[in-house]
Specification:
This protein is mostly helical. It has helices at 16-54, 60-95.
Length: 108
């Protein structure tokens, strides 16, 4: 498990500013990681076009490798998103007092 401090704070909690800064930092990290993987994916597409032009006779090997790389990058982005977004939205809704997520603390 992960050692989490008190993410689910109420509006009158003195640690609210610290919690919000950590949640925003985590969300920013998810966005930056997703952008970086997206840039890697674009770079792989461009290099695939270059390799395809250089190896006009043998298209199978570079295309297969590039498609596999793109699938793996897409999986990484999706799993990062699916892992972090539920936690971050739960923290946000609890802080805004839309939902009481105290019972969900043990889930995360």
């Amino acid at each position: 498990g992960v050692c989490l401090f008190k993410f689910f704070v109420n509006s009158d909690d003195p640690q609210k500013l610290f919690v919000w800064s950590v949640v925003i930092f985590n969300f920013t990290c998810v966005v930056v990681i997703s952008i970086c993987y997206g840039l890697i994916n674009l770079s792989a597409k461009r290099s695939r076009r270059t390799v395809r032009g250089m190896m006009a006779g043998n298209k199978e090997a570079p295309d297969k490798h590039a498609r596999r790389l793109q699938r793996n990058i897409t999986r990484i982005i999706i799993t990062d998103f699916l892992c972090w977004i539920p936690f971050l939205t739960t923290c946000l809704f609890h802080s805004l007092e839309v939902v009481d997520a105290t019972s969900l603390y043990s889930v995360f």
